[in-house]
Amino acid sequence: MSLTIAALDVRLGGRAILSDITLSLERGTLVGLVGPNGAGKTTLLRTLAGSVAPSKGRVDLDGMPLKGISRDTRAKRIAVFFQGAGAGWPMRVRDIVALGRLPHRRAFGGLDGADHAAIDRAMARTDVTRFAERTEPTLSTGERMRVLLARALAVEAEWLLADEPITALDPAHQLDAMTMLRSVALAGTGVVAVLHDITLAARFCDRIVVLGAGRLVADGRPDVALTDRLLADAFGVTACRGAGPDGTAYILPWSRSGPHPEDIDAAFPHQP
Amino acid sequence: MARRSGFAVLTMMLAVSQIWSIAAGMAAPASGGPRHVVSMNLCADELVLRLADRDQVAAVTYLAHDPRGSTVAREAMGIAVTRGLSEEIVALRPDLVVAGAFTTRTTVGLLKRVGFPLLELGVPNDFEGVRAQIRTVAAALGHPARGEAMVADLDARLARVMPAAKPLRALVMRPNAFTVAPGSLGDAVIRAAGLANVAAELGRDRFGQVPLEAAALADADLIVLDEGEPGAPSLADALLHHPVLDALRRQGRTVSIPNRLWTCPGPQVAEVVALLAAAAHQRAAR
Amino acid sequence: MNAPLPPPMRVDRAVVGPRAVVWILGLLVLVLTVASIAVGYAPFDVPAAAGDLIAGRTTLPALVLWELRLPRALLGGLVGFSLGLTGAAMQGYLRNPLADPGILGISSAAALGAVGVFYGGFAASLSLALPLGGIAGAAVAALALNLVAARGGTTLGLILAGVALSSLAGAMTALALNLSPNPYAALEIVFWVMGSLADRSMDHVWLCLPLMALGWGLMLSTARALDALTLGEDTATSLGFHLVSVRLRLVTGAALAVGSGVAVSGAIGFVGLVVPHLVRPMVGARPGASLWPSGLAGAALMLAADLGVRLLAMRPELKLGVVTALVGAPFLIVLLLRERGRGA
Taking an 8 Å Cβ-Cβ cutoff, which residues of chain C contact chain B? Predict the structure, then answer.
């Protein structure tokens, strides 16, 4: 029931992207993966998905090494959402979401009842049912993102790894998506989402993992992981804190902290 | 840039002046015939090599050396070769150029303008035309007696041929499925052997190619092919080994006559007539 | 849901659609094949000849039917299927609507390989050498293009690479033909560059069929992977597809199918370009679903073009590539204008 990383190092193109990461993730939780630009969040996600091989260290799924698991099994157990260009062809939304059922395909055969039910559920969750018959080029960016998210949900895997799933969405749909991810997590899926919006991450996630310059900087509940000190060091901001009408605490980045005249991209820390 | 175009102009001027000087310096051929004969196509090569003295011939075309395509490959050995280009011909300073009706018009035109003595050979349609052509070439080469001898030889061989009793139907298949058009020399050869040319039946003017379907369905008694193994492969030659022709061969309908005997008019036409007549007798006997 | 239906059938367009399209196209191919057998330069009683053939009587019509009409029709279908299928597979894999074995230079390279083998005399000793030569040429081109595609870049970059490859292969083919000692060789470039099905034999059919079928199998096995690739390589990997295996199967399959086809019929262009576009709206634009229909539509197109060439009664016979180019080149221009309009 766990996805663990031990002493992970990842080098790509000669550069150290991740150094000495140790992480243990459980199903049934919504984990927010945050950090400044270039901290290595997407790479970490891809390593968890198995598409990037670690230079050192290991990734284990339920105690077994990830690379020892067959592609098919891994595809059924881990679903991934990547930002990417949409389909190049004018495919119907329903067909795009149906691609999420490919890991469950049998040798000869189309989609069966269980597949269609899963597709319907996934489309309902991201509120794209009403454009099931529209073709992809006619969708707006936000609508396309929701369709691709539905595709990832349609896999109905044990784990869902999402790379910036709410970036292009309008506020209403952002809230919907976070609520949806939380309910998916509560239903038993392990959800890891790379998020840029600290406010939403702190509000909805059970656990926050902060990366900075390829290292693990903090790991814990939002109020524990996102201290003022950390926000200043890792993100370079100060925050307002308060409580919403229902008593939930919120964090709102407010201004820059300290004398940082240039925007430092964590990927190139030595640039002036 | 200016230097390069200047250089080009200079080269051109040198070339032109050289051509003019050669032309100007040329005397009329001395009695006894020309001493530097250049022939510009295969059929001219064949007649020239057969009728001239070896040291009269300055050059022939590269095709004359191909043993598969030329009937004078042996005679051509050791003779210089051209590809029919103007500069090559001019550099040889010929006192007689023998060309064919289909030789590149621009080359022929240039040679005429420069003033080389030029003999253009046509395409004869019948035996009389062949005889006339042999005589013309022999005369131009200064050996009229040899021409007469060759004609006499041709006639003698033709006389010895016993044409087929029944006019069997013959179809000639050359590379790329070209056949022998009615009214051409090849047609006269077929008739001289006592056969009927199927190409005449095949509807439209069969100047060109015969579709293999038509060739098979024409139900010819004799299909004339070159069945020798090709030297170098080509699709044109491969066509003559198509399975449908192989099947007809197994039915005994084919006769092999080397393709090179059909290419040019000359003394070899008598040989073709003889081969055709012999094949017809064989087939009739079956 | 709706009225009760027998359990195995699904009222779902995504399943019934492509299947119905395949059946219809299959029927069309069958009809055109029969028409192709019935049409030729010398009329004869085809049903009677067929009867003779089956009964084993070696009459002339039966001979013409088996040795000339049947191979021509079969090759039209086989080569057309290969070109259509390869075009659809390449468009799906490269996510590029302009991909086509002709435009990308694969057909020209195959022609070069076949020419090298044929005029070099290797086909005389081993007839299988001819399609193998075509396959080798096609494989080199496909691998080179893969390298270009793998570096990323634009549609335009890939097409230009293909054009360069095509020009180079064409020039080298002309060179090889000129160097051949056989005087007919230099004129035969028209066959290799424009393609023709005239006077082919059953030998040609047996020669190319097994290798082509292998190529088809390899390409068809990537159907689902092509669908997944519409979402990008990372997502396709996460859905369980081994991208290196997919690429290998596609490149090998394309080389086998196109290479053996070109070796027996010359390079016929534009079929692989046009047909996937015609088929795509009927199958919901899924690349994997367009493979079989594109193959069948390619076969239908080739057979129709070949029928046209023979019905035109032009001697010498018009080359097949001319007809496909007359249809395909305007199509390509329209496509390019649409792409520019879309700002691709």
Answer: 40-42, 44, 58, 60-61, 63-64, 67-69, 118-119, 121, 123-124, 180-185, 188, 191, 198-199, 201-203, 315-317
How far apart, in whole angstroms, are the C-alpha atoms of residue C194 and residue C7? 51
Give dist(CA B116, CA B23) in Å, integer. 7
What domains lie within chain B, and their CATH numbers? 32-156 (3.40.50.1980), 163-285 (3.40.50.1980)
- The helix/strand/coil state of B146 is helix
List all chains that touch chain A, counting a touch as 3 or more CB pairs closer than 8 Å.
Answer: C
Torsion of Cα atoms, B123 then B128 then B131 then B135, to 10° = -90
CB–CB contact B217 C185 (8 Å): no
Whether C14 has its CB under 8 Å from any CB of chain A: the answer is: yes
What is the dihedral angle through the alpha carbons of C283, C284, C285, C286, rounded to the nearest 10 degrees? -80
Nearest chain C residue to B242, by CA = C201
pLDDT tens profile A155-177? 999 999 999 998 888 899 899 99
Q: Which residues of C touch A155 (CB under 8 A)?
A: 239
Separation in Å, CA C230 to CA A86, A134, C91, C291? 7, 17, 11, 15
CA distance C234 to C228: 10
Name chain C contacts of B212, Cβ cutoff 8 Å.
Answer: 68, 199
ipTM of the complex, rounded to two decimals = 0.86
Q: Is it the case that chain A and chain C have 3 or more CB pairs lying under 8 Å apart?
A: yes
Asked whether C111 and C260 are in contact (CB, 8 A), the reply is no
Q: What are the pLDDT digits (tens) for B78-135?
A: 999 998 888 888 888 899 999 988 777 888 888 888 888 999 999 999 999 999 999 9
Instruction: Give the single-character DSSP code of A103.
Output: G
A148 touches chain C (CB under 8 A): yes
Q: How many CB pairs under 8 A join A and C?
A: 87
CATH of span A2-256: 3.40.50.300
Judge whether C95 is closer than 8 Å to chain A, CB to CB: yes
Report CB contact under 8 Å: C240, A92: no
pTM of the model: 0.87
How far apart are alpha carbons A109 and A105 in whole angstroms? Answer: 8
Chain A, 16 to 35: residues with Cβ < 8 Å from chain C are none
C60 touches chain A (CB under 8 A): no
Per-residue pLDDT reduced to its tens digit, B129-185: 999 999 999 999 999 999 999 999 999 999 998 888 888 999 999 888 888 888 889
* CA B241 and chain centroid, separation: 23
Distance (Å) from the alpha carbon of B230 to chain C's nearest alpha carbon = 9
Contacts of C254 (CB under 8 A, 6+ apart): C86, C89, C90, C101, C106, C138, C142, C215, C219
Contacts C201 to B, Cβ<8 Å: 242-244
Tokens for A255?
């201004």
Percent of chain B with pLDDT over 90: 37
Separation CA A87–CA C236 (nearest Å): 12
Residue A27 carries which side chain, given as an amino acid letter? R
Interface touch C181/B66, C-beta < 8 Å: yes
Which residue of A49, A51, A99 is in closest CB contact with C231?
A: A99
Considering only CB atoms, B234 lies closest to which of C42, C44, C182, namely: C182
Spatial distance between the Cα atoms of A80 and A155, rounded to a whole number of angstroms: 9
User: For chain C, which domains are there?
Assistant: 16-342 (1.10.3470.10)
Give residue limits of the domains in chain A. 2-256
**A144 contact partners, CB below 8 Å, separation of at least 6:** A86, A136, A168
